[in-house]
From TrEMBL, chain A:
Domain of life: Bacteria
Protein name: Carbon starvation CstA family protein
Keyword Transport: yes
Localization per record: Cell membrane
InterPro entries for this protein: CstA, CstA_N
UniProt domain CstA N-terminal: residue ranges: 33-591
UniProtKB/TrEMBL annotation, chain B:
Protein known as: YbdD/YjiX family protein
Upper classification of the organism: Bacteria, Pseudomonadati, Pseudomonadota, Betaproteobacteria, Burkholderiales
Organism: Variovorax ginsengisoli
PANTHER family named among the record's database cross-references: CYTOPLASMIC PROTEIN, CYTOPLASMIC PROTEIN-RELATED
Pfam families: Sel_put
Length: 688, 72
């Protein structure tokens, strides 16, 4: 860039950013416009990208375009394909963006919009984007190896195996919590359920079209798929209003849970071209389209933030999730600031497509900034809602009851004045019968999006359409994740079972496939079902368990990055990864230990298990449980949650010890010991 | 636009549309047969190539067969 332009542009962005933050920070007592929040975020991203990522690329990693990337070395036109930088950016972003950055910020909005915003912005710049970038770098320098393989290479076989077991455990919890979000959004919602259900025949039709009717014509199938998808939203309204059809699509939570479990088992066993691939295309179109529409909508409508900057719930007494700001904010907002799961994507297909090393800065670091922007928009959408509506949708029934009148009374008592009429009217506006206790982020975000998009396109009458569009958009990629995740889980389980009994590891052996699929579905299905019938809410427990697991995985990925830097003899710059690693370990270990041992039953799993277990033994009922059996189940499940949480804590502590040992050894060496592909190896055939 | 008027411009417009479609296919992770043919012609000229059906089937199987890590 021209030096003078650069000299003027960057100070201008810095001043705009500072001004936006000032508007956020100083606008006390009156509502602040959401545009300031979004602008402040964008300025932070631009500056971080321009300066910090350049520093990492040039000084810390020393990206070298003369090195041959795996895409060029193996260029096979299938997996290894050198890809245009911008195209790969889009591809990588589509792969990392999911439900995570949408759900976490919505839940965290109970503490006000400011704590969440600050953590999303500082977390992404110092931890999340750094992790994605360096893992991508490490994988490209190791011929596109996966995270597990790299841990095995650089830290040793035992940590490699431990990491794989950890990934499987996190996978199970993620699948359960994602499915639970869908259940919470679709319970008693015939319109929503019909549109989601309609995606199954639409995807099947697309699959058959692409394979049999017009083989290979993916574009044509996509066009009619999207048209049918939009038509299904309109048809859904007719279904919900029809006296004959509505009851067929009005299901209870447990019924939906079973439907999802059966769906998961069948979908993961079908050939991929029939349903998984076409549905993944649909979900990616909708995902990118919706995110762009939401960004434009926020700037066009310029809504006011109704949620205060901070609420009194930073003290840990919040109804959406319990626990203080430190450490629980940092595990509730996972994917928008730093997500261990991204380390799997950054060491998956993306490194096999990178054309030049210098592109990784834009793809790895820049891709994560875009993901973070999605999280900021989700936080914005939740914060433009009336706080009373926000709490009515997110507090569990155990706290606010099941009627609008009771909910309004409780929530007004917290200082967020709301009338039962407004709660009922909001439900009518979005075409639903009730909005109470629809925890899980998706419905809240959908109402926020419906209000923003409704004002931008179509007015009040279109709000119900936009609400169901938003639910469809989230449920669609959650169902894709359930299908794809069950397959990943199946392969991991088969890999492990293969060590115990050889034939079980054979992925071509049908009975072994079925056993592993059922095992995987059974595991996440168990957590899902318990979450659905949990009288205390479900989401508040499972999401935190997921948060601990996901941030632990991020900690493990950053430990790998740290070890790689030390082994490359770049210890001067080790703080780039060591500082975020330390912060992640401090927050997640504190959160993990508190989740297990905290004496307050609202926070500690064991305390809650003891409270319900003791009462059950004495034969006294504690509301909202309705029977002694239900209380015993609460006690058992909380003990189980404590065990899973304890496993994550021990895993990351063990990884810490392994990484420290490797780093100390590498420090004593005078030459680099990282196991990279040597710079001279050229494309296959071109050079021996 | 006049057909005979400017074939050069039209061809480049057509090419641009093709490359836009190709970019979209790559972003969405869809099979991109034209790109494969180009690749085959460049790296293995004269060698037999897969048919459109086979290529698409193979790419979809490779991409999704092992399950894809979709983020949370």
């Amino acid at each position: 860039m021209n030096k003078l332009t650069s000299l003027l542009l960057w100070p201008a962005i810095a001043i705009l950013g500072a001004f936006s933050f000032a508007a956020l920070a100083l606008g006390r007592g009156e509502s602040v416009n959401a545009v300031w929040l979004v602008t402040a975020a964008l300025c932070v991203y631009f500056i971080a990208y321009r300066f910090y990522s350049k520093f990492i690329a040039d000084k810390v990693l020393r990206l070298d375009d003369t090195r041959v990337t795996p895409a060029l070395r193996h260029n096979d036109g299938m997996d290894y394909v050198p890809t245009n930088k911008w195209v790969l950016y889009g591809h990588h972003f589509a792969a990392i963006a999911g439900a995570g950055p949408l759900v976490g910020p919505v839940l965290a909005a109970q503490m006000g919009y400011l704590p969440g915003t600050l953590w999303i912005l500082s977390g992404v710049v110092l931890a999340g984007a750094v992790q994605d970038f360096i893992v991508l770098f490490a994988s490209v320098r190791r011929d596109g190896k996966s995270l597990g393989e790299m841990i095995k290479m650089e830290l040793g076989p035992v940590p490699g195996t431990l990491a794989l077991v950890g990934v499987l455990a996190i996978m199970i919890i993620i699948l359960a919590v994602l499915a639970l979000i869908v259940v919470k959004a679709l319970t008693g919602s015939p319109w929503g359920l019909f549109t989601i259900f309609a995606t199954i025949p639409i995807a099947l039709l697309m699959g058959v079209y692409m394979r049999i009717i017009r083989p290979g014509r993916v574009g044509e199938a996509s066009v009619f798929g999207v048209v049918l998808l939009l038509a299904s939203i309109f048809l859904g309204r007719a279904v919900a209003e029809s006296a004959t059809w509505a009851p067929w699509f009005t299901l209870t939570g447990p019924q939906l849970a079973w439907a999802l479990i059966v769906y998961g088992a069948i979908a993961a066993s079908l050939p991929v071209w029939l349903m998984l691939a076409p549905r993944d295309y649909l979900s990616t179109f909708l995902k990118i389209g919706t995110i762009v529409a939401l960004a434009l909508g926020i700037y066009y409508v310029a809504p006011l933030l109704a949620m205060p900057a901070t609420t009194r719930f930073i003290d840990g007494s919040g109804p959406v999730f319990s626990g203080k700001l430190f450490p629980f904010l940092f595990i509730t907002i996972a994917c928008g600031s730093v997500s261990g799961f991204h380390a799997l994507i950054s060491s998956g297909t993306t490194p096999k497509m990178v054309e030049k090393e210098s592109h990784m800065r834009f793809i790895g670091f820049g891709g994560m900034l875009a993901e973070s922007f999605v999280a900021v928009m989700a936080l914005t959408a939740a914060s433009v809602l009336d706080p009373g509506i926000y709490f009515a949708m997110n507090a569990p029934a155990a706290v606010i009851g099941t009627t609008a009148a009771h909910a309004a009374e409780v929530i007004s008592g917290w200082g967020f004045t709301i009338t039962p009429e407004l709660i009922n009217q909001t439900a009518i506006d979005i075409g639903e019968t009730s909005i109470l206790s629809r925890a899980g982020g998706a419905p809240t975000l959908a109402v926020g999006m419906a209000q923003i998009l409704g004002q931008a396109f179509g007015g009040k009458s279109m709000e119900a359409f936009w609400y169901h569009f938003a639910i469809l958009f989230e449920a669609l990629f959650i169902l894709t994740a359930v299908d794809a995740g069950t397959r990943v889980g199946r392969f991991m389980i088969q890999d492990m079972l293969g060590h115990l009994y050889k034939p079980l590891g054979d992925t071509e052996f049908l009975p072994a496939n079925i056993v592993a699929t059922l095992l995987c579905v059974g595991l996440w299905g168990y957590f899902l079902y318990q979450g659905v019938v949990d009288p205390l809410g479900g989401i508040n427990t499972l999401w935190q368990l997921f948060g601990v697991g996901n941030q632990m995985l991020a900690g493990i990925a950053l430990l790998l990055c740290t070890s790689v830097l030390v082994k490359m003899k770049r210890e001067r710059y080790v703080w780039v990864t060591l500082a975020p690693t330390a912060w992640l370990l401090v927050t997640t270990l504190t959160a993990g230990v508190q989740k297990i041992f905290h004496p307050d039953p609202a926070i500690g799993f064991l305390a809650l298990a003891r409270k319900f277990g003791d009462a059950a033994a004495q034969g006294t009922l504690i509301a909202p449980a309705k029977s002694i059996a239900e209380m015993q189940r609460v006690a058992f499940n909380n003990t189980l949650d404590a065990v899973v949480c304890g496993f994550f804590v021990l895993l990351v502590v063990a990884m810490c010890v392994f990484a420290a040992k490797i780093c100390l050894q590498a420090l004593k060496q005078s030459r680099p010991t990282a196991q990279e592909i040597p710079p001279m190896s050229g494309p296959q055939g071109a050079m021996p | 636009m006049n057909d005979a008027g400017n074939p050069e411009a039209e061809r480049s417009l057509g090419r641009r549309w093709q490359s836009l479609c190709s970019a979209c296919r790559q972003v969405f992770g869809m099979p991109d047969y034209e790109r494969y043919l180009e690749h085959a012609a460049q790296l293995h000229p004269g060698a037999p190539v897969l048919s459109r059906d086979d290529y698409c089937a193979k790419v979809i199987e490779r991409r999704y067969g092992q399950g894809v890590g979709r983020c949370c």
